[in-house]
Amino acid sequence: MDSEQRRKRKQQGRIYRPACAKLLLVRSLTVCLSCLVFLLFISSDRLPIRRDGSFRPVLRTSTMSLLPAFLTGGGGGGVSQYQNLVVEGRVLLPDHLVLIVSSKLTPPTDNLDCVYYDNMLERAVLKPVISVDGYHQQLKSIVRCHLPPLNFSASVNLRGRGRSGDVVVERREWLLRLNQSVVPSWNKVVYEAVLDSNGYSSNVVVFAKGLNLRPHREADARKFRCHFSLTDFDQGLFVFNTRAIAAAQEVFRCLLPPSILNNLAKAKDIRVSVSRVDYNVEGADGAPLPSVAKVQIINSHEHKSNTRKYELCACTMLWNQASFLREWIIYHAWLGVERWFIYDNNSDDEVQEVIDELNLHKYNITRHAWPWVKTQEAGFSHCALRAKHECKWLGFFDVDEFFYFPHGRGRYKPRPNLLRALVKKYSDSPKIAELRTVCHSYGPSGLTSPPSKGVTVGYTCRVEAPERHKSVVRPELLHTTLLNAVHHFKLRDGYKYLNVRESKVLVNHYKYQVWDSFKAKFFRRVSTYVTNWQEDHNKGSKDRAPGLGTEAIEPLDWRLRFCEVWDTGLKHFVMANLADSTSGFLPWERSLA
Length: 593
Prior knowledge:
By secondary structure, the protein is an alpha+beta fold. The protein is about 20% helix and about 25% strand.
């Protein structure tokens, strides 16, 4: 009997143990998978976890507008590059609308239209684009459109025209969503973001308008926070927030989210915004600014870490100054500038053609489309970030400013690379991070038309007293804020600037040229904190021309103004060292081809 009962219990055990084992196995797998999902979730950058510990899930939807597919009438050509474009952002500037497109548009682009929809979606108006530019190392594009007509939405779309009259057919529900999206105005938007990594630390530098920081002063970084997202902030996924560690003017430096810090390549094209916070009040955060800024990784693209640095580079911001660019670059290349960064602020002249021609002759120039108006200080900060991986010294000066070594009054003899030799003396200095030189401002010198041999030879009469200064800096030693006043930068603690004696080197500033050249200053001032001359403000500013009002009306005696000292030093220097010995031609007087 006992043996029979033992046999039955063994049979029951064989029946029920496998079921228990299966149950335990399923429960174990469930727990493991849950743990794995949780670990992945908390490590994701798309989780809205703040450093203060609060958790803020937000339900959002994307507003990135994929251009609708083209319906062709058969055989239509010329629109293929427009079929899969994504408009990543739109910004209303004072005189036009900027669209940021996700891919590079190759010429010709004269078959591309801006499409404007009225607020009720009852009418559509088409206008040709103003211009198209490469953007972000030519990987993306900027399309400039006219401002929308009255009662039309700023959510402008694009349409390509083919040879057979191709058309775009949009779905009404798609257009409704597009029209409801908010297009930021220029006075309140985050417009650029750059990854800054030096091997020891990495963070993101963000450029924004709308927080109204005081000019030329460092701000309290504790009052600002950065926000990271894969889409827009008004309709996007979860946002990861980090604190700012530096702030000044329009530039904010923030920590990176931890998972991006561990893999910097993940930072590329993540959208970034900035908000103001009250660090004394828990949870008192302002809303992030509208943003069209996606993180750029610029140093790895343009310069290899094992390549030697250039001793001397130059950076400038310009608008419609192609006619002066050739002389400025050729002359300063003779003085030793090896690398050029040209920030083009919406020019519509032949700047690109001039640069292409010079690059054929190994002048090493990069044109960077900078569509953001009145942001010269921010543009120079951006340029310093780009150049520090390539250049030991970086000069910031305009295309009407020319370094001059007055050899007749000093020990220097005319020879190439004088400026490079000067900065090289301080390349290993433990204290000097910036060299400053005084400027002399030149007038029209009796001329009524632009001088054929260029400004260095044509303008020879100047104001007696020097005005302001220009600087050449070591970009790796700039302050973490990148704070600058155009003419000079704030330096890291422990470093200082050196005023170079006027007898050694100075800058000839051809500021007051013949009227046809000078009057352009009335229509565009690039500095953030300089009033446009047509505005009735700050008339006593040194930036303005004394005696002129707010209208571009030529004074009768303009050609004779600003002439107190006749100074032909640079003219003779140029003719003696750069003119052809047979013809007398200067290299910028004719095509280099």
